[in-house]
Amino acid sequence: MADSEFGESEYGPSSVRAVIMDAVLTPFRALVSKSALRLYLNTLLFMGAAALLTGISALAYGVFYFKFIPTVGLQREVHLQFGNGNPWGTANFDSEFISLQPYDVSVTLELPRTPSNLDTGNFMLDLTLFSSRPASSLLPGPNNAPISQARRPAIMTYASPLVDTARRVARMPLYVVGWHRESETLEVPMMEQLEFAKGVQNLPQSLRLEIQSDSKMQVYTAQVEFRARLTGLRWIMWRWKITSFVVFSTLFWSVSTLSAGLTWLVMTWVLETVPKDEVKKIEEDPIKEESEDGDTSDESTEVKKEEPEDQEQERLLSTYPAEGDAGGSGPSAKRGRTFFPSILHILTNFYPTMHILVTNDDGPPSNQSSPYVHSLVHSLQSAGHTVSVILPHQQRSWIGKAHIVGASVKPTYFRPGTLHQEDGTTHRLPRGSDGEPDDGGDEWVLIDSTPASCVQIGLYHYFKERGPVDVIVSGPNYGRNTTALFALSSGTIGAALEGACCGTRSIALSYAFSSRNHDPVIIAEASGHSVKLIEHLCANWADGVHLYSVNVPLEPGVSENKVLYTDMLQNTWKSGSCFQAVDPTSADDPDLQEQLLRDQGEVSGTKPDQTVGAGEKSTRGPRIQHKHFKWAPSFQDVYRSVEESEPGNDGWTVKEQMTSVTPLKANFMPAPGISGEIKLSANQPSLYSLVDCDNSYVQEMVDRALTRRLGSASKRVSSLSELPDSSAPLFQYREYERLDFDHIMSRPSTSLSSAYIIRKALIRKHYLSNTVANWISKHPDSILRHHFKPAFDFELDYAEFLDDALLEAYELNESLAKNEERPDSEKEWWILKPGMSDRGQGIRIFNSEDQLREIFEEWEEDSDDESGSENADDDNAGASLDTGIVTSQLRHFLAQPYIDPPLLLPSSSNRKFHIRTYVLASGSLKVYVFKEMLALFAAKAYCAPHEEDDVADLARHLTNTCFQEGGSSNKESVRRFWDLDHHVPGLSADWKEKIFEQICSVTGEVFEAAARGMMVHFQTLPNAFELFGVDFLVDANGEVWLLELNAYPDFAQTGEDLKEAVVGRLFEEVVDVAVKPFFGLGDGAGTDDMKLVANIDLGRHS
């Protein structure tokens, strides 16, 4: 019994085994105890938090560094513009500058050591910094004030002939192999320690660099560099980058760690504040678990404890998604399908990414008319390219390279939807407008014009923030564009031609379909195939090629078929007219007509069947039958020509289901072997003249001048339809609004016009003032400074807003303020002119703000704006007011110092007068002054404004005969200038000759100022001329002052007495100087009566 009690139960083998296992496992139990695990967790959390804070510290220092430290060496390449003036160029900045930071600014020029450059000697560099990015050439103006400007001299290094020759011989091998070139690099310091005031408006956004020299400079490159002068902390951080990084990152990390530790302690204290009964329960649990762990003999207890732990572990693991399962919602393969293809594309795409401008002639995505463009754009974007899309807002097939003249092009904005679905939306304004949030989605531009116009607007007016366009892709066209018949009419190829004409590589892409069942798989394959082909062509662009026409068969497996370079098949329409007569009463639906063409033409090559309601010839009725016509070409002509052609052309290649690539040039090559002179019959007139004037006075003078100077060489026509052909030589002298400018612009060598299209810089008073002001600011020594009174223009609707309107007219305000303290005899008087009036309407004089306010209070409120046309300042612009001003001329006003005292002639009863000079501007550009001038006198004797009780009597001050009752018929109101008094007190005997010389100098200078400085508002044409009436006033010292220029001047004010001597001779001189030379009948040299005062070559030739 003793054996049984004390045998194996206490000291048997299982007891020994338990003791040994317990001794072995005791150290490991300490390592996996709850305290140890808690320590591991806390350590891991601390290390993770420390690592996270270290990363945040490094990131924070990096952000601070790049915000606090400016770009030390900021460089901008300046692309110089060369023309008739000095070379100049501009460059833009983003946000690279920092306020209150000194910068040293220098200009680096690389100049070829050409004889002309070396002979130039010293030249000047003019550098100006601006706070805005205007669209003009960055000249200072009221809305474009410069931040800083500097002019510094420079000169190329002198080298004696011996030294120069030795240097060239020594470097000859480098020149031969192209490792060196004969140039010199000049670095010219422009500004030192330049600082910008606080505020974004005081930081430069653009610069303008001009090289000023007596002779033309030749420049390889020009570069402006801004080098920041770092001091204090900025210098330390920039000089010792690593040390600064370690110090500041450690400091930030220490502060962050301390803050995180304190936060941890607070959270721990809060979480441990629990009720006492829960604390007691927590304290008892470890004791209970300790006693259970100590009972090693009870194996069933161990099993029961292990099972819940295993189950808990499985439960915890089940709360985390499997590896690769995105958010626990799908297998890892789902994510791989979107990730790995992009990786493979990056690894296999050897072509650089490009900015691609996409357009078409089929309009926005539509299963009916434009089913392919969305797929192509998607494929290009998936290939990593930047894609900008601008399309016609509707279907524009068969329109070629056309633009719509005279129409205002308006955009809308298309947001594409699902691929191959018509769920895209069109909006009036782009994303982010009218408070709408910009979610960054894709957005295309739609314009109501042609494919060629899409290219022009897309290249120059949209997408500039994305960088320059690398290639234009026009298409994919809904149908093939093979053979000459399709290509010459294709809007798709027309858009590519427009791009090539703009100097941008272009590709016309067309899909030749055989079924209208738009299979997304086939379209996707064709789009991917097109992307690869576009990338290949751009990477291997052939010399001399302006554009490619690519035709892809929309067939399964097209990407596996060959791609061939081809010629374009030349073919013609052989089955008769491409139009079919239809019933005039039938409906006309272009979209259905286009769909009918595609259904029956593209697929089968047949001519659409249409009903002609008025096709039979009637035995009665009008001689010409009334019909309507619809575009209905027979595509059978195209396909028959392809079947009959030899292999190798584009039509044959597509027929064989291969991709055709046709290299093209953007021109019409001349037929060889045709040259020499074409001699017409002797009785053919040299030119046709079309004279159409509202004023019979002018009509008679122009007709008489043509008859006297040209005789039978000119034949009169009453309309363009009377010309034998559209290219016949034609001279038009017509009212501005009746001139056929389309004919003029399309025939620059055979059509001559009597007016320029745009010349507001001269004939609008406020434009003329800006023209002169800008020119004087650029040319301080200009003669215009001493012969044109500075003017201040402002806009005003109501008199109560006068104070606001005059805010920027500092000189005017200052003068009116000083007048308050001056005696009447010393007050400065001003003359007020409506900006768009003529015939003396609305002109007033004043010397105080109260008088100016009273003037405006006299006039009624303006209800209609100006028409905006070039001839808007002519007659019938609006209803006349009693004050002598038309309502449409209110709002824009000009104030100039009043010229007092004027020159007065004793023989004319001391009446004030101005000189009317007729000026001829011809071509691009010669300016002539007609020597026969008129003197137009006021109705009453002159009296200084301060000597009058009421300055409202303008008859003493205004010399325009239109203002006078009776006009030019008044006795002595209009006189020949050269018949004026020969002796005038205070002036020399040759005072008239001196005045004429001044007039010639001022006239030549003001036309050059408009032609070179205001090219947007004065655009000369080689096949146009114009007569201007230029008015001058002479002061008591004999100085001439320019008043204004008038287009289509009132010749009738000359009167009958001087009609033949002045106006008749004027038009005869115009025929000799401007008309005959254009048609090869004269040399265009000036005459004794028509003096050449300016000969400016603007680079525009007929």
Mean pLDDT: 80
Architecture (CATH level 2) name of the largest domain: 3-Layer(aba) Sandwich
Helix fraction? 25-40%
How many β strands by DSSP? 37
Our estimate of the beta-strand percent is: 15-25%
Number of helices: 29
CATH fold name of the largest domain: Stationary-phase Survival Protein Sure Homolog, Chain: A
Find the structural class using helix and strand composition: alpha+beta
> How far apart are the termini?
138 Å
Question: Could you explain the architecture of this structure?
Answer:
With 1102 residues, the chain is α+β, with helices and mostly antiparallel strands. The protein folds into 6 domains: 39-69 and 236-261, no CATH class; 77-229, Jelly Rolls; 355-571 and 627-664, Survival protein SurE-like phosphatase/nucleotidase (Stationary-phase Survival Protein Sure Homolog, Chain: A); 687-753; 757-789 and 901-1101, ATP-grasp fold, B domain (D-amino Acid Aminotransferase, Chain A, domain 1, 2-Layer Sandwich); 790-860 and 887-898, Dna Ligase, domain 1. Helix 8 (232-239) packs across helix 9 (241-271) and helix 13 (373-382) crosses helix 17 (520-539). The longest helix is centred in the first third of the chain and has 35 residues, at 34-68. It is globular and about 150 Å long. It starts with a helix and ends in a 7-residue tail after the last strand.
Secondary-structure blueprint of this entry?
Layout: H1 2-6, H2 8-11, H3 13-31, H4 34-68, E1 73-78, E2 88-92, E3 103-112, H5 115-120, E4 123-130, E5 146-154, H6 161-170, H7 172-177, E6 183-194, E7 206-212, E8 221-228, H8 232-239, H9 241-271, H10 276-294, H11 299-318, H12 332-348, E9 355-359, H13 373-382, E10 386-392, E11 411-415, E12 425-427, E13 444-447, H14 451-460, E14 471-478, H15 483-487, H16 491-501, E15 506-512, H17 520-539, E16 547-553, E17 563-565, E18 579-582, H18 590-602, E19 628-631, H19 636-644, H20 650-655, E20 659-664, E21 687-692, H21 696-710, E22 714-716, E23 730-734, H22 741-746, E24 751-753, E25 758-759, H23 760-763, H24 765-778, E26 792-796, H25 802-805, H26 810-819, E27 830-834, E28 844-846, H27 849-858, E29 891-897, E30 911-922, E31 926-930, E32 934-941, E33 974-976, H28 991-1013, E34 1018-1019, E35 1025-1034, E36 1040-1047, H29 1059-1078, E37 1090-1095
Parallel strand pairs: 9-10, 9-14, 10-13, 14-15, 15-16, 17-20, 21-22, 21-23, 23-24
Antiparallel strand pairs: 1-8, 2-7, 3-6, 3-8, 4-5, 4-7, 11-12, 11-13, 16-20, 18-19, 25-34, 26-29, 27-28, 27-29, 30-31, 30-32, 30-35, 31-37, 32-33, 35-36
Helix pairs in contact: 4-9, 8-9, 13-17, 14-16, 21-29, 24-28
